[in-house]
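__Protein archive entry__

___
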Amino acid sequence: MVTPDDQSDVIADPRIDEDGHVRPAERKPGITPFKILFPIGAVLFVAFWTWALFFASKTAVNKIEDVAWTERAEAICAPVKAELRALELRADPSLEVRADLVVQSTDLLAAMLDDIEAVGPSDAKGQAIVPDWIADWRTLVQDRYNYADRLRDGQNVPFTETAVRNVPISERIETFAGDNEIPSCAPPHGSIL
């Protein structure tokens, strides 16, 4: 048996406190996954935004170089857009009148496309993507004629358009028009659709 006088000779266990309770283990400083991953993530975050803001191309994907072509296209589309607005003012709830207005407006758009297509762009990118844009327009024109047929058949239904890869075709057309600064060549959005 150990007496109080002999306690100085007993080696104390550092894991046990004076009351006899086990002390919690001390955390030793070291490398943790957080200490490794956080700085790497922070560096990658800063690098991405530096690239995006200062080095990434700001040119629109659909932008063509032939400015003369885009100016000519806008000059062709602007009067058609004004005529379409005038047709919208004649909107009527009668299905037959609506069908006639859709056909009249679509005829204007088809003629506009013929004029735009008569002279193609001179740059390689324009020659590659403008025919696709025109083809999208032709699809939208056909969708409009089909809609007029449904109206004439007495179907009071909303206008529906073709989608390409789940994107409405009018959105594709409008994106190209916006990227090339030809806003009048965007599809019409109005009551006669």
About this structure: Residues 124-152 form the longest helix (29 residues).
